[in-house]
Amino acid sequence: MIFFFSGTGNTKWAAQELAKATGERLLFIPDELKTACKYTLADDERIGFCFPVHGWQPPRIVREFVSRLKIDNASGHYTYILCTCGDSTGLAVRMLTEQLEGKGITVESCQSLTMPESYVCLPFMYTDTPEREHAKKEQARKDLDIYIKVVTERQTGYSRLTLGLTPWTFTHVIGAYFNRYMITDKKFTVDADVCLHCGLCAEVCPVGDIVFDNTPEWKNDSSCTCCLSCYHHCPVHAINYGTITRRRGQYYFKP
User: Fold this and answer.
1) What is the pLDDT of residues 213-223, one digit of tens each?
2) How confident is the model at residue 255, as a pLDDT?
3) Fewer C-beta within 10 Å: the chain N or C terminus?
4) Which of 176, 225, 158, 159 is nearest to 55 (CA)?
5) Beta bridge partner(s), residue 56
6) Can you spell out the DSSP letters for 96-138?
7) 42 close to 11: Cβ distance less than 8 angstroms
8) Strands 79-85 and 158-160: what pairing?
9) Count of CB atoms within 10 A of residue 135's CB?
10) DSSP string computed for 140-202
11) Stretch 3-13: mean pLDDT, rounded?
12) Are 171 and 91 spatial neighbours (Cβ–Cβ below 8 Å)?
């Protein structure tokens, strides 16, 4: 089985490709959190975890899921992690690996895919140029093909991660601050005079954080992951995060 979380679609694409190659179940983490998070594996079934890196850490929703995860017969089943990032992963995979080890689950291979940027809420962060976006997606397809072979053959000891410079600092200092204080829906606004009232933002929110009544309203209930799916999918750029995104581009994965 493959557990995955995705906002703007980069990780969803990768998880779907893995599911097609392995023939194994694809389970969306926000949906699974509505259940008991208890599973029994089929014979020889692999365990996959796929997620986007948020601030050089696994998203909070992924860590919450793992904390509740119960697999009756996990021992002896091949386990792997695939993460996506716009630039570098820091020690996000190590964080999740250690959490899984606490559950008696040993990760045997891991891979990161560098995908087009989607986080645009800081002064130095922008979406990629069309040329850069295309190049990243092309390289990611090549890297994923290699990793699919690793997973299908159940290779152990394989690790191909873009850690970046000073990964400990980015994960445990900058990333810790980011994930504690900057993951919030309180800065989302909508330009009512621009909004098409189409409801697409509510449809694409992976955690159901948007209540749509002619215009979107965010719940402010700590469910938001700041994936920016609502912002990036808005067809008229009516949604913004503070004021900085008014001058930023939009991106979501398209094959």
Assistant:
1) 889 999 999 99
2) 86
3) C
4) 176
5) none
6) HHHHHHTTT----EEEEEE-------STT--PPPHHHHHHHHH
7) no
8) unpaired
9) 14
10) HHHHHHHHHHHHHTT-SSEEE----SSHHHIIIIIHHHHHHHS--STTEEE-TTT-----HHH
11) 98
12) yes
Residue 253, Cβ density class (10 Å: 0-12 exposed, 13-18 middle, ≥19 buried):
buried
**What does the mean pLDDT of the chain come to?**
96
Q: Which of 89, 242, 239, 243 is nearest to 252 (CA)?
A: 239
CA–CA gap between residue 25 and residue 46 (Å, rounded): 10
Rg of the chain, C-alpha, whole Å: 18
Within 10 angstroms of residue 102's Cβ, the number of other Cβ atoms is 10
Mean pLDDT of all residues in 134-138: 98
Asked if 144 and 19 touch (Cβ cutoff 8 Å), the reply is no
The pTM of the full predicted model, rounded to 2 decimals, is 0.95
Q: Which two tokens stand for residue 30?
A: 């926000």
